[in-house]
Amino acid sequence: MIEDMRKIIRILEKEKKTVSTMESCTGGGVANLITNVSGASDVFHFAAVTYSNEYKIKMGVSSEVIDKYTVYSSETADEMSKAISNFSDSDYGIGITGMLNVIDPANPVEGKNKIYISIYNRNDSKFYRKQVEVHSKVRYKNKNIVLKAIIELLSSILKED
Fold this sequence. Notes:
Layout: H1 2-15, E1 19-23, H2 29-35, E2 44-49, H3 53-58, H4 63-69, H5 74-88, E3 92-98, E4 114-121, E5 126-133, H6 139-160
Parallel strand pairs: 1-2, 1-3
Antiparallel strand pairs: 3-4, 4-5
Helix pairs in contact: 1-6
């Protein structure tokens, strides 16, 4: 994964683009991957780990969206990616929310193990989305599946732009 992230960082550097993250279930894993690459400080503006609804809302996520669609939804992931892009003045915002094989009594939903990824491109106001299902009983394995999916999505976006 680190080699793929290195390629992403180089593309962002070349294009003079920046990225920030608002992560929930990945707990800062994307930010960690980015900052493991030398030169990341040229493209990485900010990271927020917002586990609670309260802090998602404080960072700019609409409480109405959470109430209508739940915190575990593509709509909330979109809110997260756009809010972090705007908050940090970044070209790309990455938002991740979902359940990693747990039940959250504060946010009841029908299905578990679904992760919602949204990458917002502020320059053209476009959202790129991906949904991932995870089934391992081992949390870090589920996180790695999600991190790989984020890398794949971000790589494909940068090739398009």
